[in-house]
Amino acid sequence: MIAEQAGVSEALIFRHFKSKKGLLDALYEQCGEKVEAIAKSVLEESNPTATIRKAINWVFIVDEKDYNYWRLQYKLKWEDSYYNPQQMQPIVHKVTWAFEQLGYEQPELEAQLLEKTLDSVMISILRDGKEAHLPLREFLLKKYAL
Q1: Does 3 fall in a domain?
Q2: What is the pLDDT of residues 19-46, one digit of tens each?
Q3: Is 40 helix (H, G, I), strand (E, B) or coil?
Q4: How many CA atoms within 13 Å lie on the side-chain side of 40?
């Protein structure tokens, strides 16, 4: 099915990736690169308020044409060989810094809560579409006075 969708022969896919696991490994590696690219704008931000705003907004800017790609990534997260709890740590650390700068009482827990919330929102967006979850985005922006 993948070969058909890509308009290539199945043999070409197996010659390049060797196996289905090789293909999944390549997709997972590409995911890490996409997450790094998305995280870059958050990590390079010097304004604490803008840092939190960018962290909230990133789940809402995923292009709908990429939903199947991200659905696969979320499915892979349940596999031990693909589980990487450290992947989002740079963003969590940056958001912790932002909450510290803004005087939050427990900035690390606040950042962890926001990361877990956004992860859940992303799953819901991938299942139900972005429009149904825009009120959550507005709620989070208002909650953090952004």
Answers
A1: no
A2: 777 877 777 777 667 777 778 999 999 9
A3: helix
A4: 6
